[in-house]
Amino acid sequence: MLGGQAKQWNRSREAGQSEQVQVLVPDRRSHLIDLGLSAVGAAIGIAIALWLVANEQSPFLLASLGGTTVFLFALGHTEPAQPRALFGGHLGGAFIGILCYQLFGDALWVSVLAVVLTMIYMVTTRTIHPPAGANPLFMVHNHADFMVLLNPVGAGVLALFLVAMFWSRLRPGKEYPVKWW
C-alpha cells in the first residue's frame, strides 16, 4: 500500500461487544510522492524502450508498450505485471499474430482469429497481460516476420522490465517483480 496513516474505529460485533479495527489509509502527500516517482520511472522506461525499438516505417508497431508501462510502474504488484505474464503475453501474442499473418495473409478475419487465439493462449498458459492483446493486431497489420519477436517485441519488453526492476530497487517498500513465475 502507498505510504499511510493508521486510522482506528470501533466496530460492533454480533454479541454487542466492540473490537478495535485498524485500517491503513494512504495520506495524500505520500500518495502524490509515490505517484510522482512512478511517473518518473515510467517516463525513463518508455523512453528507453521506444528509443531501442524505433522503426521509421511503423512508429506505432508496439503501441502496447504504453499499456505495459502503466502495469509495470503503477500496478507492479499485480499478476499481469509479473515476468511470466509480461514476457509470455507479449511474445506469445506477437508470435500468434505473426503466424496467423504468415499462414493466412492480411484480412479482417485473420486479425480476429489472431486476437482470439492470443486470448485463449494467455488464459490457458496463465500469461494474461492485457496490453499484449493488441500485439497480434499489430503483427497482422504490419505484415510482420518472426524477427520482430527480437526487435521490437523482445527488446522493448526487456527494456521496460529492466528499468522497472531497477527503479523499484531505488524506492523504499517497493519490489518488482513480486514473483518470477
TrEMBL record:
Residues in HPP transmembrane region domain copies: 30-177
UniProt keyword list: Membrane, Transmembrane, Transmembrane helix
InterPro entries hit by this protein: HPP (IPR007065), TM_HPP (IPR058581)
A Pfam family that the UniProt record links to this protein: TM_HPP
Transmembrane parts of this sequence: 32-54, 60-78, 85-104, 110-128, 148-167
Protein name: HPP family protein
Species name: Candidatus Manganitrophus noduliformans
